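Could you join me in thinking about how sequence relates to backbone shape in a protein? To get us started, please write out a protein record for me. Would you write everything just below, so we can both look at the same thing?
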Amino acid sequence: MSVYTPGQVVEETGFSLDTLRYYERIGLLERVGRNAAGQRRFTQADVGWLGLIRCLRDTGMPIAEMLRFAELVRAGDHTIPDRVALLEAHDRRVEGQVANLREKQRAIRNKVGHYRAVIDVPPCDDLVGSRGGGRSRAVPQADQKL
């Protein structure tokens, strides 16, 4: 059986030591085993669970909901339908966030296209000479609503 030190788990999961201790304290992570010197030793199962928790956290699942999910997992296989429902609801929220980000990305890309078009626009003939003969360039509408 593979065991991992807290430092190795930090490296593997990206969670800080404080976060690992907090997750253990609130019950999101089951009690971590310790060696003879009392130092925490994580199992492969702990690291795998933390990988799932990282995914849920990174996609915006609240801690209370992660705790509910952990309770369901620990309660046994008869809770699988409840777990599916919880994860499907979270997936719908994630899908909404992705759609929202895509919409914002389109606005950003439109603005980039606008600025690229401005850069590539040659000077307007009717502006040349109208102000003392200097070259002029179209000015972007920088404050246009995205």
